[in-house]
Amino acid sequence: MRIILQNGLPSSEIEKIVKELTEKGVAVERLSNANPVIFKISENGFSLDQKQFEKMPGVQRVLAGNAPFHLVSREYQPEDSRIKIGDQEIGGPEPVIIAGPCAVESEEQVMEIARFLSAQGLKIMRGGAFKPRTSPYSFSGLGEEGLKILARAREETGIRIVTEVLDTRDVELVARYADALQIGSRNMQNYQLLKAVGQCHKPVLLKRGMSAQLKELLMSAEYIVAEGNRQVILCERGIRTFNDYTRNTLDLNIVPALREMSHLPILVDPSHGTGRRSLVEPMSLAALAAGANGLLIEIHPNPDAAWSDAEQTLSLEQFARLHQKVKHLVRWQLENEQTLSAHS
Length: 344
Ligand code: PEP
Ligand code: MN
Description:
It is a single chain. By secondary structure, this protein is an alpha/beta fold. Helix content is 37%, strand content 17%. The protein contains 11 helices and 14 strands. Strands 7-14-13-12-11-10-9-8 form an 8-stranded parallel beta sheet. Helix 3 (107-119) packs parallel to helix 4, helix 6 packs across helix 7 (214-226) and helix 10 (277-289) packs parallel to helix 11 (316-343). The protein is globular and about 70 Å long. The structure holds phosphoenolpyruvate and manganese (II) ion (MN). The site of phosphoenolpyruvate has 10 residues, from loops.
């Protein structure tokens, strides 16, 4: 059984609760140090009465069983989480597009993209300064110089920055420049890194591991939230299957499935999900139709010359067309929603 305490209890109150539980003969183990504090309690030879614990002062909720995650579940929070990057809310009624280059290559490249996206009305740009590359000989990012370029783009255009952090040793550095930290697919189960970004105060974009199950993704999100950082945005980016015609298989099933099980927003990345430029637009529209809270898309002024992921990168013109279509779809969805709720 798990006992979740009310948020912000002073430590004297927490100690009182532990004492009371111990006096009842219950074994108490503290599971989370941040807010809310969670205790695992186990019977010492007698059965636990859930109702009795629910009545204790300072207790927010008691959960039967030993589910591997709580804080990210719908059961724990029925309403959708809305997470702000700058003043853009993710998880609200309108989906949000985050776009930008796979990797930061130069100041000119980033500035051109930032100006273009701002003119398109986008508020958040992506771009990797630390790149996880399958081959050790591939370009692995400009590092801190790349972060500085991203920060200059924010200074000039006001656009907010999402960028990947690969290593616990760089969390502070990346958080100094970025508005949100990305945890890439390859690091979804790097628990030390999850804990480190959990102790940081910036939103986290957590990408699904390429062979991770839904529950594993939610347990990874729980790692971050259990450290006190509730600002987690999930991202489906395709999984490895026997399919040999696209880079990955974009698992859109997981979008409504996650929305049933978790209150966290979910983005879809059709760029890595398909690996093919021509498939990005249809799969973007499909993702939004499936209920995604937004999209993560790779773009470049000269996509064929991109230093990484060129085959899946859209040109600015292709992105502008996709953006138009997304706006139509979203307008249709919002209107339809109103009509449907008026008739129900
Ligand atoms: C990325 O979005 O830059 C990236 C490396 O993606 P993934 O971690 O999903 O492979
Ligand atoms: Mn990429």
